[in-house]
Amino acid sequence: MRNPLILTALALAAMAVTGCSSSKSDVVSNIDPSRWYMHTGPGNILYSPNGEPLSGGNLGLPDCPKALGGWFDRIDADHDGTIDSNEMVRDARVQFLRMDLDGDGAIYPSELVTFRAPFQVANKRQARETEDTSDNKKPRIKADISDPVMSADTNLDFKVTLDEIVAQARDIFASLDRNKDGKLDRQEVLKSCPPGL
Fold first, then answer.
1. Residue 183 class from Cβ within 10 Å (0-12 exposed, 13-18 middle, 19+ buried)?
2. What is the value of pTM for the model shown?
3. Of 104, 96, 108, 74, which is closest to residue 162 (Cα–Cα)?
4. 3-state secondary structure of 84
5. DSSP strand E in the chain: where?
6. What is the pLDDT of residues 159-187, one digit of tens each?
7. Engineered SS bond to 75: which of 60, 91, 105, 171, CB 3.0-4.6 Å?
8. In this structure, are residues 22 and 180 in contact, taking their beta carbons and an 8 Å threshold?
9. Angle between helices 109-133 and 85-99 (to 10 degrees)
10. How far apart are CA 152 and CA 163, in angstroms?
11. Residue 63 carries which DSSP code?
């Protein structure tokens, strides 16, 4: 039997080589913004575009518009009702520092597991309670969504550096900026919420 990790790495490498033939703007325009902040699992844990948990644990299980709306309000530093690229990158840097638990300048999968544990454990309990006691269950999302942090690992060395997370933040910003005016308004961000969440 073949090692699935090696097969995955080879598939990603093939996709990267194929992607080299197109321009950067072509690649960015094909990104589905919702895949950058949604992570499936019990209760459909939500993450911001920069990988910050927006649900689970003490955060509860807000719906996507409420969770992303709160994130939007928090990173709109100048309170002008829009997010510019600098605000997005500033938030990415803050999230990187929070997730780099050992301060070595890289985020490893094991650090993400530790960082996310308080959100995962409580969220499983909350999701079970929601499923057992309510007819209005939250819909589940397909499980083929990339991890919102590890997807920045473009050189496939199983760690994410600050440069990689900042580059990903810029790409996500460009993909969310649907009208290409150099800023994100609340509606552009909230349009990424899957229906029913």
1. middle
2. 0.71
3. 96
4. strand
5. 82-84, 106-107, 160-161, 183-185
6. 999 999 999 999 999 999 989 999 999 99
7. 91
8. no
9. 100
10. 9
11. -
